[in-house]
Amino acid sequence: MPSVLFICLGNICRSPTAEAVFRQKAVEAGLDVEIESAGTSGAHNGEEPDPRSVKAGKRRGYSFDGQMSRQVEGEDFNRFDYILAMDSYNLSHLRRIKPAFARTPPRLFLDFADGVIDRNVPDPYYGGNRGFDDVLDLIERASEGLVAEIRANL
Predict the structure, then answer these.
(1) Which of 39, 55, 89, 154 has the smallest C-beta neighbourhood within 10 Å, fewest atoms?
(2) Phi, psi of 71 (to 5 degrees)
(3) pLDDT above 90: residue 127
(4) Which DSSP category does 1 fall into?
(5) CA–CA distance, 48 with 150 (Å, rounded to integer)
(6) 103: containing domain
């Protein structure tokens, strides 16, 4: 079974949104995929996703049920087939902490989004509510590309 780990800084906005969206897209595509999210920082460990992310996602029919923030760990680099960072800052951090003999190199999630020039999912935390909808648009697009990638590799 393929496995995907989505990564942002605090694991309360972007990566939980990616987890919720991709979980639904995978189900709709009939794919059996292990899906989780984590943060490069442990500042929000054990917290639920940001209520603004949940509200925006629920308006589009996504479920964040059971999600709790956690920090990425070294063993994740051998446990997951895809480790997908939301932005270049977190990708850099992941590359620094990746164990020497890890099997999975981290990548940018938006590498799977056709037609998107900027490969960074912007952090909506300090912005207005529109930012959470913009993040959803990007994540939905990348999720479709990731579904196609996984399907092609089965």
Answers:
(1) 154
(2) -95, 140
(3) no
(4) -
(5) 28
(6) 3-152
pLDDT digits (tens, 9 = 90+) for 66-83: 999 999 999 999 999 999
* Average pLDDT for the chain: 96
CATH number at 24 reads: 3.40.50.2300
User: How is residue 20 written in tokens?
Assistant: 């919720």
Contacts by 44-51 with C-beta closer than 8 Å and gap 24+?
A: 44/10, 44/11, 44/12, 44/69, 45/69, 45/70, 45/71, 46/70, 47/12, 48/12, 49/12, 49/13, 49/16, 49/17, 50/12, 50/13, 50/16, 50/125
Residue 129 is predicted with a pLDDT of 84
Query: What mean pLDDT do residues 15-37 have?
Result: 98
Q: Whole-angstrom Cα distance, residue 88 to residue 92?
A: 6
Encode burial over 77-97: b for 16+ CB neighbours within 10 A, e otherwise: bebbebbbbbbeebbebbeee
Domain total of the chain: 1
